[in-house]
Design a protein that fits this description.
248 residues, mainly alpha, 16 helices
């Protein structure tokens, strides 16, 4: 039996679950919660190794683990200890999942609010409802430039919304961090590689969110990210570490 066979079995059990990203994310959180910090760290490391060496199932599982570390953190008792455990074990690919810091660039909240005020003159409740229900592509395009996270959250639920528009929101510069985080938290859109790519290359994305996305990128995207001068240095470092790990 391969030394990674137990991890492969975990990965397979996770990805065959029906019910979509929400179910797999919660299952990933339960798996991490059942392990001690060392075991959880080893699992995350092995899944990343498998994903980087071409396992599509491991790449899908890594998405579930990455989102569980944020959205299900309260259900993982030792989540606060994982970065420390990874550091002690020399598991750099896991340690970098917990990178923190301000985004490489910042868009002043007051300036963003003034920009929104010029575009929208209706109450927030009306804007949220219209964003969620409109079928007009031009109106969707207007809501796509909103800086208010609540409006963007409702737009992401719109049944007529296309990936093209979501990528445009994810890539928009300048941008407030809150709408970008809403995209990452969206079960519907975070599974799209193009959306994740647009997010992680956006210098206005918070570092902690970017660090969860980097392991989900293709090798070509990692190479490009490692050379991008506009993104946060820790994300460039993470890309380089993952590229080096894949060569071992």
């Amino acid at each position: 039996m391969s030394e990674r066979e137990p991890t492969l079995q975990v990965v397979q059990r996770l990805v065959v679950l029906s019910g979509g990203d929400d179910i797999r994310r919660k299952a990933a959180a339960r798996l991490l919660a059942q392990l001690d910090p060392t075991g959880a760290t080893m699992l995350l490391h092995e899944v990343q190794v498998l994903a980087r060496t071409g396992s599509a199932a491991a790449a899908e599982a890594m998405l579930a683990f990455s989102r569980a570390l944020e959205l299900e953190a309260l259900t993982i008792p030792h989540v606060e200890l994982l970065r420390r455990a990874a550091s002690l074990m020399g598991a750099t690919t896991v340690e970098l999942l917990f990178s923190e810091g301000e985004a490489a660039m910042a868009y002043d909240a007051n300036a963003a609010a003034r920009a929104d005020a010029k575009l929208f003159n209706q109450p927030l409740g009306v804007l949220k409802s219209r964003a969620r229900l409109t079928q007009n592509p031009d109106e969707m395009a207007r809501f796509a430039v909103a800086s208010n996270a609540a409006v963007v959250r409702e737009l992401l639920r719109n049944a007529r919304l296309t990936e093209e528009v979501v990528v445009r929101i994810a890539a928009r510069r300048p941008a407030r961090p809150e709408p970008l985080v809403e995209i990452w938290r969206s079960d519907r859109w975070t599974t799209r590689p193009g959306v994740r790519r647009a997010l992680v290359f956006n210098p206005y994305l918070p570092v902690d969110v970017g660090a969860r996305i980097v392991p989900l990128l293709s090798r070509a995207d990692l190479l490009e990210l490692s050379k991008d001068s506009s993104v946060h240095p820790s994300l460039k470092e993470q890309a380089l570490v993952l590229l080096a790990a894949a060569r071992r």
